[in-house]
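Q&A log
Question type: sequence-to-structure
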Amino acid sequence: MKVIPISDAQHRRNRCCYTPLGIRNSVAGTDYEALMWALGLLCIPLVMALPARFAWRIYTGSKIEHGDYRKAVKQVLDSGYSLEQFRVSLNDERRRLHIEPEKARLIETDVLYPLSLPHFLLLPALIVSPLAILLAIPMIIMAIPILLLLDWLLIEKRGLIMALLFLQRRTKWQIIHISQPHRTHGDLREAVVSFHRIPRASFLGMFAWLMVHWSLAAESIWLEMLVSGILYLALLAVIEVVSNALDAELVFADPAGSRLVPVDKWMQAFVEPLIGAGLIFLLWRDLMQESRLSGGDPVIFALTALFVLFAVAVVGLGVEIGFSRRRGKKTQMVFSNQVVEEINPLSYTFTRHSGRLELNVSCSMAETVERRQSEREDRPRKQLDFAFVEKLRSKAEGGPITPPQAPATPLDISAVENSAGDGGSAE
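Response status: OK
Response body:
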């Protein structure tokens, strides 16, 4: 056994960061000037996001008539109905307020897919995109086969539906289908809808890089980028495929807990807090470590972190446009058919009338899936069901085509109800 002299042992104990003297030595070695510069660089996206968010609010509509139309749209959605069910009333409201159709389309998109502060944190990626795309293009090319592989394993080989059935057996929750109001809306600004999903992919990539930077501590930055890139693409592929599949509008019904939890929201409740808290913790830890090490440079670390954030934002946008927008509907439809085969849950309507909530069975999920497939492919229906008959419209004599009986919502639709009543009497 090697005997360590008292002086060396005392010196090593003093250097340990867990002793009071070690903590003082660590704090004394912190480069506060470089740390402040690094924090300033990391705050640049936040400083740019605040005015960008204010400018977006003005662009989407800041006038009084825009606010009134936005309120009417929210009233329809808060009642549990889709905007298409009240398209005639909303068009009348738009014309009354003298709002252009394109502006009304933008307002509806902003209400259905609102952009929050994390979205505007990524706007500088558009400025540095020519530089960030150099790193993004190889990752996008690598992401496509990984996405196809995960799609084959989880969807084609029924991995996701087996996991859902296992979760149902363990929790004893019932799986039902509730049509969400915004899913039946087809006339939206696709660019805004795609950008709405970008923060999840961007912060996931930042989280993967910080994990590798903390655990691997490689001397070569290229090795660090390679490992973190592979980890990020694997996590991104799982998240994208599962998210596209869970657009099937499935809901966990927990009678014991008196709650209804959408399956996609249930998954986000686990993933997003983990990524958010882990991102802040790892970013602060690595930044402090760089400021305390003799060879560390917190400014270079901050610049690298911003470059990684903007690069993965470009990667996320490329994956959204190249994969999710093109293949997402197919993945959702295949998974919906698997749910119908294995579970065949009932489809419910969840509405609200003057504070009264109503959860009613409309049809089976199989009928809903079959109806949507026939509408998308423009082919004859196999059978009639209650939901289809309810959506049939009657032609009022001398007036527009209106629903036979418009459900009451907070929106003023008295004109539509009167026209529907006149049409019924004429017939």
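Response note: The chain is about 70% helix and 10% strand.
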